[in-house]
């Protein structure tokens, strides 16, 4: 059921994006800097693109910047989780070693039961 809802949502999104793209095909000029600053610095870069590419490109750029920002922000949490996972593994090995040492010389069945708990 959820799979069909996802496909329906993606289909509707695709139809909306195609209709927006078809409605906004006029060419716009993008400039790197304002004219006065471009003349002062000698960097007069501009390009002409369809409006829908500018709009959809801005949305994609915003998503990429947002994901990157969030990934960098959560770095400390991932590092802490990794450290804690390492500590847990180390402690589990130590507990296993101590149980083995404690069960030396005991009956095998009792040692197995002791390790299982």
UniProtKB/TrEMBL annotation:
Domain Lipopolysaccharide assembly protein A as annotated: residue spans: 46-95
Membrane spanning stretches: 49-69
GO CC list: plasma membrane
Alphabetical UniProt keywords: Cell membrane, Coiled coil, Membrane, Transmembrane, Transmembrane helix
Cell membrane listed as a keyword: yes
Presence of keyword Heme: no
Coiled coil: 81-108
Protein name per UniProt: Lipopolysaccharide assembly protein A domain-containing protein
């Amino acid at each position: 059921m959820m799979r069909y809802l996802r496909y329906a949502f993606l289909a509707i999104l695709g139809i909306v994006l195609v209709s927006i793209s078809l409605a906004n095909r006029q060419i716009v000029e993008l400039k790197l800097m304002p004219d006065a600053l471009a003349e002062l610095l000698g960097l007069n870069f501009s390009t002409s693109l369809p409006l829908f590419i500018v709009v959809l490109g801005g949305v994609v750029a915003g998503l990429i910047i947002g994901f990157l920002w969030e990934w960098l922000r959560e770095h400390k949490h991932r590092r802490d989780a990794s450290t804690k996972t390492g500590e847990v593994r180390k402690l589990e090995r130590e507990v296993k070693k101590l149980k083995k040492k404690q069960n030396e010389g005991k009956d095998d069945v009792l040692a197995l039961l002791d390790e299982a708990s």
